[in-house]
Design a protein that fits this description.
The protein is of the alpha/beta class. Helix content is 44%, strand content 21%. A hairpin with a 2-residue loop joins β1 and β2 (16-23). The longest helix has 20 residues, at 133-152.
Length: 153
């Protein structure tokens, strides 16, 4: 398996799109703190689940493990893409793994090819295997988007 220097997860839910970037060196310390995380849509009591995840994120200081996290309304999707492309441009010598929501995959992959084709691997979110650390890390942005969505109501 190829080792990556950075992992980027881009996801969207309803009116929000977001991404997070984590260095490979911080993943090992973060993974044990994610045992309670699952996809929001799979939670039985969604309101209680989000309340508990929000507390976990704050208590375990989950955000501090990330190089960057950003969530915006979907109308600002291009700003999210530009941020990620700028990151790739600044880190040309790094090998980067990017997981993108299935609906955004084709367009985003074309953008990445323009900036950094050889050192970046772009995959569909649905291709992440349940139980892998990549899947666990993708749950963070999934849950943060849902927390933001509930907060904005």
């Amino acid at each position: 398996m190829r080792e990556f220097d950075y992992y980027i997860f881009i996801d969207y839910f309803e009116n929000f799109i977001g991404y997070n970037i984590i260095e490979k060196g911080k993943i090992r310390a973060l993974l044990p703190k994610l045992s309670r995380f699952k996809h929001y849509n799979n939670a039985e009591n969604k309101k209680l689940y989000l309340k508990n995840i929000k507390k976990t994120i704050k208590r375990e200081n989950i955000r501090s493990y990330f190089y960057k996290i950003k969530i915006l309304r979907t109308s600002k999707k291009m700003q999210i893409y530009l941020d990620v492309l700028e990151f790739l441009k600044k880190h040309l010598n790094c090998i980067v793994f990017i997981s993108v929501d299935n609906n955004e995959y084709d367009n985003f992959e074309k953008l990445v090819e323009i900036v950094n084709n050889e050192k970046t691997k772009v995959v569909k979110e649905s291709s992440l295997k349940k139980g892998t650390f990549e899947y666990q890390l993708s749950l963070i942005i999934d849950n943060l988007l849902n927390i933001e969505r509930i907060k904005s109501k």
